[in-house]
Structure formats: C-alpha cells, structure tokens
Amino acid sequence: MDERKKAIGFFDSGIGGLSVLKEAIRLLPSEDFIYFGDSINAPYGTRPVDEVKELTFKAVDFLIAKGVKAIVIACNTATSAAIDDLRSKYSPMSIIGIEPAVKPAVELRKPGKILIMATPMTLAEAKFNTLLKSYESEADIVPVPCAGLAEIVEEGNLSGEVVNCYLKDKLAPFINEPISSVVLGCTHYPFVKGEIVSILKEDITIIDGSLGTAKQLKRKLASSRLLNEAAHKGTVTIINSLNSEDILKLSYKLLT
C-alpha cells in the first residue's frame, strides 16, 4: 500500500482529543484518520505516571496495528508522561504530542496573569515545569489545577449548571484580577470555552494547543513525504474503549 494513503492515528484519554482532530481535519482534508479514545480508563490526569505510560503505550500499539503512518498524542497528560519514551521506541514514525500553549500566551505581551488550566498531573510533570521556568521571568503565569473537569466533559456536560458551577469555583480567585489570557492545557477544555468566557471578561484571550499541534502534524508529514494529496475528502473512524453508542454519538457530534 502507498504509505501516503495510510491513516493518521489520534489518541486521547477520552473525547478531549477531538478538539485537536477537528483542527487536523480542517488543515488536512484529504487525510484519513483513526481516533482512539480511552474513555473507560479516563481520567488520566489523576492517575500515577507509570499507569498513564502503560495505558498510552497500549493505545499506540493498538493504532500501529491499524496500520497508521503517524500518531498524534492528543492528550496533554499522556504527552507529559510518555512522549519521549514513545518517540524512542517507535522511531522513525512521527509521533506528535501536545503541551499547554504557554509560548503564544506570553508572546501576546498583554498585562495581567496568564492562567494555565490543566490536569494536576500535567502541571506536576517535569515537562511542564521546564516550560514554565523558561517563561517565568517574562510573565506572571499561574497554574490552575482542574481535577474533575475532564470527567464533566466526558459525561457530555459542555454547558449548563454542572460545568458552570465547577468553573465559577475554580476561577473565583481571579474574577477581579487583571488577566492577560487563559491557556487550556487539556484537550477536553476547549469544549467548555464558552462557559469560561461567560465567567471571565469578554476580552480575555483563550488559547489552546490544537491548531499548533495540527500544524506540526502537517509539517512532519510533509518532511517525510507522507502527505495524502488526493482530491477527495478523507474519512474519520472513531473507536472508544467504552464501546457505547452514546460515547460514539457524542464523539461524532463534537467534530461537527
């Protein structure tokens, strides 16, 4: 089979990575995608690092068995825990990760705090703290651990009382503070962006890493001469470890 015609694998601990896949489909409309969400084991953000690594490696093995040409780890927690080991084991396959978009937030040069909303594990990992230290002299960056928010999204609560109450509690300390931007450091969080905007000021910039990750995927495929340049539109296959009709319906809905 022509390597260029193979699908691209996407992985997340649940449905969150669909926010990244949506950008990839827009940027690479001719590509076929296979998305695997591990909702039965979600959330990853409160699990031990070794357990997250094990689950991530199993997911990657599953996608490789499907014959994919590249893999996107569309999960900040899994990227933090396993990306270096994945690249070492599966080289030369392109494996693209995602991390909180701190750099674009700093480069806005807007006055106020930069809030980094992410899972406790992402914020605790050395990868994030190295990133944080590289910018701490340039901006006032405040980590905001959001244990439980990914689960709320997994349950399909994208707006309404449940998610609104959660976010009001988390963001309450910053309501009257000058805020430059909010970085969404978990791929589940863009699905509740509207609720975040409704709680904070309208002019606050909200940033996530979805587009940057999709662009990096395109660059990697181009450099490896693996871009599918077919004229027809590609396909999307979604698989979820929960294997329920409801989660699959929600997954396809989130791509629209």
UniProtKB/TrEMBL annotation:
Gene symbol of the encoding locus: murI
Keyword Flavoprotein: no
Enzyme Commission number(s): 5.1.1.3
Catalytically driven reaction(s): L-glutamate = D-glutamate
UniProt pathway annotation: Cell wall biogenesis; peptidoglycan biosynthesis
Lineage: Bacteria, Bacillati, Bacillota, Clostridia, Eubacteriales
Binding-site positions, substrate: D12, S13, Y44, G45, N76, T77, T187, H188
Entry protein name: Glutamate racemase
Keywords annotated in UniProt: Cell shape, Cell wall biogenesis/degradation, Isomerase, Peptidoglycan synthesis
Domain of life per record: Bacteria
Organism: Clostridium omnivorum
InterPro entries: Asp/Glu/hydantoin_racemase, Asp/Glu_race, Asp/Glu_racemase_AS_1, Asp/Glu_racemase_AS_2, Glu_race
Family note: Belongs to the aspartate/glutamate racemases family.
Function: Provides the (R)-glutamate required for cell wall biosynthesis.
